[in-house]
User: What shape does this take?
Amino acid sequence: MIRLKNVEKYFEHGPTKTFVLRRVNAEIREGDFVSIMGPSGAGKSTLLHLLGMHDSSWTGEYYFLDHPIHKLNKKDRSELYKKYMGFVFQSYHLLDSLTVYENLDIPLSYRNIKKSERESIVCDSLDKFNMVGKKDLYPNQLSGGQQQLVAIARAMIASPKLILADEPTGNLHSNQAKEIMEIFKKLNNDGTTIIQVTHNEKNAEFGNRIIQIEDGWIAREQVEARV
Assistant: This one.
């Protein structure tokens, strides 16, 4: 599904370069559940946003479903993202001017789905995440944990082939976090590829691969046996 060849990202300060990612080579297979771990500032979130096509200032080769992302323009990248990906941001990125219901409807509006079908999908998602009573509220009327649940529901709602999640349970209490990871695991068992950045070893163990990043380099990888 994903191939990275010698991907690098750096910032220039006069004649010097500060590297955030160094010679990243990786392959993510369809159906993988990958956890990216490492110390703060190692480049984990930078790599995740690069995979999610939010960042175009990098070098190297990135293939997604055999599309050469490094050669595509911004519009074509955006179309691939909307069609195949869902992203859970660490800071929610909900649209403040839209209700919970409207925030969930946005990813579906990018696709060729009839309004009546979209309504049914949104209602099912609200029910799954116990947010039916909050569907007409705006993000600033929700707690941080509730906003994170909406962000996770939004990422999942269009049944993407790939979910990218940046510390997806960071603002949730332990019971909510466990529920979310179990939902991720079920989605993965049903065929959705998941890549998450996490500091939480218990969350990492839900996956089948752990990639450790240190100082922008892939330091090592651990592959778990499939159950």
Summary: The chain has a mean pLDDT of 93. Strands lie at 2-13, 16-28, 33-37, 59-64, 67-68, 85-88, 162-166, 193-197, 209-214, 217-223.
